């Protein structure tokens, strides 16, 4: 631009030195273009006609036999010579494509040469003067194309990210850029600034539906590129690439269970679960059931409702571990039958987290040996030859118990060796009973001075062996 102004000043200086059509003319005409105002103008090359308006020329100091308007590119190549302001305002600058145009006003005499389309305004010769110029910026945004996908995910609570998207835009243009994620209708869900940000989006969190990923190039002043707005309503100079589809399929989701864990003793008394709660805020599936399995997943029961689950007597299942699940499913499924394994169910089916029901059943087995009979004579008397026969013994804890004939606990030897180390002579005349005890944590009443008949908790006592301590004859 400075070069053009210098050029115009140079021409004007030449004119002041006497440049004219007739060296002998006593009153040579010195063209003066004056100055023009208006613009600058910025248009988007988008197929819609773009015309200038509001341009004016100062005519007070304008002089010259002839006049025209001149439109050039930045290099001063003449693109057009509209003869009037009206003609200038009828020029469609969109047709010129991307770039910069300069608008000039020219006053000249008949000797002007070089004022032709395709020539350069810097090469004009003759008697003339060019005004200042007005800039017309013609922006054209090109987003290029994107490849990758389409992507398809299951909405199952596990993060789902896209990858492998490639931006192919060798001719991309536009001052600014961003990525755009919309729903199928164009509503803007997100505007990740970079491809890395796009590939960090968890599409599982969006729920079921279809997303579209776009690349956007744009000039300053874009309106409507906001979350919640619609990409179809963008206003400004912009270009959107093609879109990549992300399909998010909703699959069955059973929600979350709370309650338990439950621990029961298999002792012939009914045991029921209580206080189970289901958080189904993210559950999905047209059908549902409850499932009770063993620890390996074998289906033991399919209670249809939570009330039905709470009505199950777990004591009747014997010792072991049960798992309680909630299931949601869509359409037809197979394998949801008693005796089958829940891990083998097929179809659009989901299980919640399990609640554990532990069913303890201590088994003390049996003991043999004795009965024993001792004289209380001041000589130590120990038992021996006791055998513990308990191939199916169970119970987290064990001990031996020595009681009197009424069940009062006289001692709790921890091992058989400790039992055989007891001096029964020291107990005086009477009858002792030796027992073996298996029990779970929480047993109450297993203390010296308490009565074995009053034990509370989950336990089992073996048969007893008598130790008769009598007076010597």
What would your notes on this structure say?
This protein has 473 residues and is mainly beta. Helices cover 7% and strands 36% of the residues. The chain contains 5 helices and 32 strands. The protein has helices spanning 2-16, 85-88, 195-198, 306-310, 416-419, and strands spanning 36-37, 41-44, 56-57, 66-73, 78-80, 99-108, 128-130, 134-139, 145-147, 151-155, 166-168, 176-183, 188-190, 209-218, 238-240, 244-250, 256-258, 262-265, 277-279, 287-294, 299-301, 320-334, 346-351, 355-360, 366-368, 372-375, 387-389, 397-404, 409-411, 430-439, 459-461, 465-470. Strands 2, 4, 5, 6, 7 and 8 form a 6-stranded mixed beta sheet that branches. Strands 10, 12, 13, 14, 15 and 16 form a 6-stranded mixed beta sheet that branches. Strands 18, 20, 21, 22, 23 and 24 form a 6-stranded mixed beta sheet that branches. Strand 28 and strand 29 form a beta hairpin. It is rod-shaped and about 170 Å long. Residues 1-25 have low confidence and may be disordered.
At a glance:
This protein has 473 residues and is mostly beta strands. It has helices spanning 2-16, 85-88, 195-198, 306-310, 416-419, and strands at 36-37, 41-44, 56-57, 66-73, 78-80, 99-108, 128-130, 134-139, 145-147, 151-155, 166-168, 176-183, 188-190, 209-218, 238-240, 244-250, 256-258, 262-265, 277-279, 287-294, 299-301, 320-334, 346-351, 355-360, 366-368, 372-375, 387-389, 397-404, 409-411, 430-439, 459-461, 465-470.
